[in-house]
Specification:
The complex is a heterodimer of chains A (799) and B (287). With 799 residues, chain A is α+β, with helices and mostly antiparallel strands. Chain A is built from 20 helices and 28 strands. Chain A is 28% helix and 23% strand. Chain B is an alpha+beta fold. Chain B contains 11 helices and 12 strands. Chains A and B meet through α4 and α20 of A and α11 of B.
């Protein structure tokens, strides 16, 4: 039915302006904190100042005396009304240890910042002041801060009752690793330490719980990436059925994984609202936002290589400091790091093992890259180190080991099935985009003047659209397309946007598939009551499954419109075309609104050829996912594998250690590009994250496990002045199993870009023999490395 | 601490002195609010009384009198940057004020007085003011006194902002032909500086005849290196002298800061790098 939209026509593939961007840009968007109700109350949370302690008693009387305070609740009182928070990804499902997580601590705290009590007051300032009037008698115990300490014999247990400070140990890989290592010319070991850094959306988390006594139901307005799965979690916490709970996620000011749920405050505001009978709002402050960790991992990568740089085998037993247990899905990041080994490299003999360790640091939540960025860092730093040891060019070594483009679909040694790709082509494009060879010349010339310029590359393979069996991390999604009697279109979808622009991408797809103008489409997301069931936003999935399902629904609705149009024009259906809202047959043209109105109003004559209303709901479930374990017990949770290559040019001031980025390029493959400007915006954003990761952002603690990083003056994210000019190119190899060949865009790039920067710094400092594999490369660290190298050896010429 | 602070707005210096004298601790002077309000919003401070000095004419304006330049403490950074008198006679100060972080909003609201009173080790103006030998007028309920800024800066418990009010800054114009520089080391564009140095140098042919160097952001208070480096006078700048300046300036930092801007060992080393860099840059401009 109808004509196919060609590549050059229609909206898909064009850089159209975002339809949902107007509100935020004008300052007119309604964010969660803009939503208030009559009788609105405000909560402030008392958090533990200790990393590990027993709570002997809590005296709330001081807070209760403050005028304007409505209620003070401790963990003991809360436990009477609510249940623990179910895990987003329960380690027990995968054979690991599962802790009981509560909204408020009961008799023991296991990390700095853990909620201990909450004050609800008439205004925020009163609530905050009253919190300072609560007295808690803590019996402070010895915390474990580092992974090494956590694993020592006799180490204190982070979770009372556990026999080890370990969520789980997971082996990945297959092949004959022993044989690979014994037959190798060299085994080159690289210790890669990735520090704790997170994401810091400008809008911090905000929740407003509104209980309606008339219907005994709860609405949570909140900064939520996954409304439907959260509804299930709330139902367990609140002991209410899901049909009495609505989760509404308004416009969001950045998410990056941090707004995936499991946070204590989500259930807390709902419970407090029900307890008090008035709406209760909580707004996270920056210090609280910085308590959410991620990515702190210690890798020891061994590459078994031949003299000429072929990688025969890989071993990496790594430790993840996941902090204290949390119901958020953060710990799963550490799992994904191992699963994504050995990334883009054609290595079949792999022995990777994760130890997901718990400590008395605050827990993790999901963070852009979801562990795959750490895979890229560990691999790319190791490959550069190996190339230097072998005296070969780091790009040559990568080219030699990349999976070839005719090897797809490719079975990875950890059980993944890579859909498609051309990794060497992507790398070459990134190098061409920056003028790789010219920079080598510039580098040599600069060195003669005593300037240290470095060239670094990084590659990142980013599996996207993940789904885990037995969890509400779903792989499919659903959308409804509705066309009103006036011809305007409403798309309701189960995916949400973290601000990345997917509603526009979905609208472009619907505009083409349905044959209407883009400006007649409204995309509705983030409401469990109005949208079809869906899993929200994660893992670069929203355009893949939101777009895929909306396309299918649009095709169904289009068929109805065409049928009625043909009846009205008295022509054969097959002669009717519909494009950008113009319905035609030969030289006859009919208005879209006239047809739509007829569909609704003439159900007993010309409209009887269809079943009204003009509405369809469809589901899209990508292929390639394998949840039934293979003979090695491996699953493939991902349908698509985006990938990208990064080249960074940096200059190091050897007197201060300050790294300045001069130029950056990226070539990436996210399959078919729906909207180039949105994809490029996301890619540039990921590079900003990579810059922050490589050079500055760091969450630090004192020796007692108290967090020192409290504000954005401590946790310094890159500003535009830190960002060099970025050249971005696309290198698409469409995913054969997804709608339009989509692979997912938006998540990828943190690790690949960070790795390129680290490698560029090491390259710049190769005359000193410096090889830094612990992030971040802050100026003091770079300076120390130069000082140490100067002491260790006299200066030598650039390699 | 009070949830319900009071607000006082004196019309002149006399009223200000009277109000300060009549209040117990807990009163805080608010000028541009760039230092105070973030602390209040963060919950670190809860003043009982805000004394808004924004209406006091005597705190405003930049003028030249008897060969000295006076800058009212309520003068915002943007005016310090753009004022003709300061640009021509105190170019170091004008430049340093332009290096203050936080962007246009902070430059439009933050005041020179607030910057001094905060005595924040990482702020930008103090090293230049100290290198320029600034004096300040301080008002309390017992009257107004003039003190050298260097003397005031010896102790963070100076009482300014609650018990007394910084009225104006006095500065002597820089000598014609003097070279000057303010060097600031930042790890990232968005963060505080990790080390800085202000230098003023005069030359006779190529020999240094006078030298003022103050290093900031590496210890709790700015460190005046001028005495330590006074034997540079009479010498011409050389690679050897540069290395010596760097080493001696670093050695002068006894208790380096160790914070998110960098650890102590590096900060001490950077004190030297900044001092050396500032002198080098100042020499290039001198003559």
């Amino acid at each position: 039915m109808g004509e196919q939209t060609s590549e050059t026509e229609g909206y898909v593939g064009r850089s159209v302006r975002t339809i949902e961007g107007r509100g935020p840009v004008m300052g007119k968007a309604t964010y969660t904190n803009d939503i208030s109700f009559p009788g609105q109350l405000h909560a402030h949370i008392l958090r533990s100042p200790h990393a590990a302690a027993n709570i002997k008693s809590i005296d709330t009387s001081g807070a209760e005396k403050v005028a304007g305070v409505v209620r003070v609740v401790t963990g003991a009182e809360a436990a009477k009304y609510i249940d623990p928070i179910p895990h987003y990804i329960d380690p027990a499902v995968f054979g690991g240890r599962s802790a009981t997580i509560r909204c408020l601590a009961l008799d023991h705290v296991w990390c700095f910042g853990q909620p201990v009590a909450v004050v609800v007051a008439e205004d925020k300032r009163t609530a905050r002041y009253a919190v300072s009037r609560i007295t808690v008698d803590y019996e402070v115990t010895t915390p474990v801060i580092d992974v090494e300490d956590a694993l020592k014999d006799g180490a204190p247990m982070v979770v009372p009752g556990w026999d080890a400070n370990m969520i789980m140990e997971v082996p990945f890989g297959s092949g004959d690793v022993e044989q690979a290592f014994s037959s190798a010319d060299r085994v080159i070991k690289t210790d890669v330490k990735v520090h704790r850094f997170s994401t810091q959306p400008i809008e911090t988390r905000t929740y407003n719980g509104v209980y309606d006594a008339g219907t005994d139901s709860i609405t949570l307005h909140g900064t939520v990436q996954n409304p439907h799965p959260l509804r299930n979690v709330l139902s367990k916490i609140l002991r209410m059925p899901e049909n009495k709970i609505r989760v509404h996620a308004p416009v969001i000011g950045g998410a990056f994984g941090m707004k995936m749920h499991g946070h204590p405050e989500e259930g807390m505001v709902c419970f407090l609202s029900k307890l008090i009978g008035q709406p209760v709002k909580w707004v996270e402050d920056r210090e609280e936002c910085l308590l959410i960790g991620a990515r702190e991992q210690v890798h020891s990568v061994e590459l078994a290589v031949t003299k000429d740089g072929m990688i025969l085998g890989l071993r990496d037993h790594y430790l993840a400091n996941t902090g204290a247990p949390s119901s958020c899905p953060g710990w799963g990041m550490a799992f994904l790091t191992g699963l994504t080994m050995p990334g883009p490299y054609s290595v079949q003999n792999v022995d990777v093992q994760l130890s997901a360790v718990v400590t008395n640091k605050p827990g993790w939540n999901a963070s852009r890259g979801y562990g795959k960025e750490v895979t890229a860092l560990a691999l790319e730093l190791s490959v550069d180190n190996a190339a230097r040891e072998l005296g070969i060019d780091p790009v040559d070594m990568r080219m030699k080991n990349f999976i070839k483009k005719d090897q797809f679909p490719y079975d990875s040694p950890t059980g993944l099935i890579y859909d498609s790709g051309d990794y060497a082509g992507v790398m070459q494009k990134a190098m061409d985009a920056i003028g790789y060879d010219e920079w080598k010349t510039k580098q040599e010339e600069a060195l003669k003047e005593g300037r240290y310029i470095g060239i670094g590359v990084g590659f990142e393979l980013t599996p996207e659209g993940g789904t885990l069996p037995g969890t509400l991390v779903g792989g499919y999604d659903s959308s409804t397309v509705r066309v009103a009697p006036d011809g305007s279109v409403r798309v309701l979808t189960g995916v949400t946007t973290p601000g990345s622009g997917n509603p526009t991408g979905i609208a472009q797809i619907v505009a083409d598939e349905l044959g209407v103008r883009l400006d007649t489409i409204e995309v509705v997301q983030g409401d469990t009551t109005s949208c079809p069931y869906g899993f929200g936003n994660s893992s670069g999935r929203s355009t893949i499954v939101g777009g895929g399902s909306a396309a299918k629904a649009a095709v169904e609705v289009r068929e109805k419109i065409i049928k009625v149009a043909a009846a009205l024009m008295e022509v054969d259906e097959s002669s009717v075309t519909m494009k950008e809202g113009v319905i035609a047959s030969g030289d006859k043209i009919i208005d879209l609104e006239e047809v739509c109105y007829a569909c609704y109003t003439r159900a007993y004559d010309v409209g009887s050829v269809i079943e009204p209303p003009l509405e369809a709901t469809a589901m899209f479930k990508p292929g390639l996912v394998r949840h039934t374990p293979n003979e090695k017990g491996q699953i493939n949770p991902y349908p698509s594998y985006s990938n990208a290559a990064y080249v960074a040019i940096s200059e190091v001031d050897v007197n201060t250690g300050v790294v300045k980025l001069l130029k950056f390029s990226v070539a990436h493959d996210c399959g078919k590009v729906i909207n180039p400007i949105l994809v490029e915006g996301q890619a540039c954003g990921a590079i900003m994250f990579g810059i922050g990761a490589a050079l500055a952002e760091n969450i630090t603690f004192d020796e007692n496990g108290r967090q020192l990083t409290k504000s954005l003056m401590d946790y310094v994210m890159p500003r535009i002045g830190d960002v060099p000019s970025i050249t971005l190119t696309h290198h698409d190899s469409p995913n054969p199993v997804n709608y339009k060949g989509l692979k997912g865009a938006g998540e990828a790039g943190v690790g690949g870009s960070a790795a390129a920067i680290v490698n560029s710094v090491n390259n710049a400092l190769s005359p000193f023999g410096v090889m830094m594999t612990e992030t971040p490369l802050t100026a003091p660290r770079v300076w120390s490395a130069i000082q140490a190298a100067k002491k260790a050896q006299p200066q030598r010429k650039v390699a | 601490m009070s949830l319900y602070p009071a607000f006082a707005r004196p019309r002149d210096l006399g009223q200000a002195a009277e109000i300060m004298g009549s209040l117990s601790t807990g009163a805080m002077i608010i000028a541009g609010g760039q230092e105070l309000m973030p602390s209040v919003n963060y919950g670190a401070l809860m003043p009982e009384v805000y004394i808004d000095v924004g209406q006091i004419a005597a705190l405003k304006g930049i003028s030249e009198e008897a060969g000295a330049i006076q800058i009212g403490s309520f003068t915002v950074h943007r005016d310090v940057q753009n004022n003709d008198l300061i640009q021509s006679k105190l170019p170091l100060l004008s430049y340093a004020a332009a290096q203050i972080g936080g962007g246009m909003q902070v430059h439009n609201r933050g005041t020179i007085g607030g910057n001094i009173v905060a005595m924040h080790p990482l702020y930008d103006i103090l090293p230049s003011l100290l290198a320029l030998g600034a004096e300040v007028d301080v008002l309390s309920d017992v009257g107004e006194v003039r003190v050298a800024l260097a003397d005031l800066m010896k102790d963070a418990r100076h009482g300014l902002g609650s018990e007394s009010l910084l009225v104006r800054v006095h500065l002597k114009p820089m000598m014609p032909g003097a070279g000057w520089s303010y060097e600031k080391l930042k790890i990232t564009a968005g963060g505080y500086g990790s080390a800085n140095a202000a230098a003023i140098v005069t030359l006779d042919s190529s020999k240094i005849t006078s030298l003022r160097v103050v290093v900031g952001a590496v210890s709790a208070l700015p460190v005046d290196m001028s005495d330590t480096l006074s034997d540079c006078c009479g010498q011409a700048w050389s690679a050897h002298l540069a290395e010596e300046v760097e080493a001696r300036s670093s050695a002068e930092i006894k208790e380096p800061l160790s914070d998110h801007q960098g650890d102590g060992e590096w900060r001490r080393a950077m004190a030297g790098v900044m001092a050396r860099g500032a002198i080098e840059a100042a020499i290039k401009k001198a003559g």
